[in-house]
Amino acid sequence: xxxxxxxxxxxxxxxxxxxxxxxxxxxxxxxxxxxxxxxxxxxxxxxxxxxxxxxxxxxxxxxxxxxxxxxxxxxxxxxxxxxxxxxxxxxxxxxxxxxxxxxxxxxxxxxxxxxxxxxxxxxxxxxxxxxxxxxxxxxxxxxxxxxxxxxxxxxxxxxxxxxxxxxxxxxxxxxxxxxxxxxxxxxxxxxxxxxxxx
Length: 198
Hints:
Elements: H1 3-32, H2 40-78, H3 82-103, H4 109-133, H5 139-153, H6 155-160, H7 163-188
Helix pairs in contact: 1-2, 1-7, 2-5, 2-7, 3-5, 4-5, 4-7, 5-7
């Protein structure tokens, strides 16, 4: 990937995260009555902070996406047989959600099932779109990145045990992760051949 392509991905992901953070934060505030009794300038300040929060989460997403690219590159060299790396990813897909629940999650089981269910659904939808845009080999890597890496990214918010914080952090991360994984094959120019990292 050239430097210009990387800059394009960086800035587009930054603004996608900003928009996701702004919309998510505004909706949370509206439903919780967070804007009641505030002056217009105070509402504007809160919206600006939500925008900046989305940008921050987008940078976190990009850091983990870069880590994913490195892990994927190293694993492809380490595991000569392609099926071995696929099985390793499947192992993490099946185990990490349970590890997050037992070691990180602080709320009730039903709340976690709802959270994990939404995240799994988002991962499967993104993987389906990725497969349509590239080929079937992209299915497992996309679910692996969308599910496992997003769970790790949101670990801090999950420990806070505050629904608003979890939602405000998770939505921009999911949107940014999906945006990056869907842009990757376009930037690399790989659609018919097996994607380099997804």
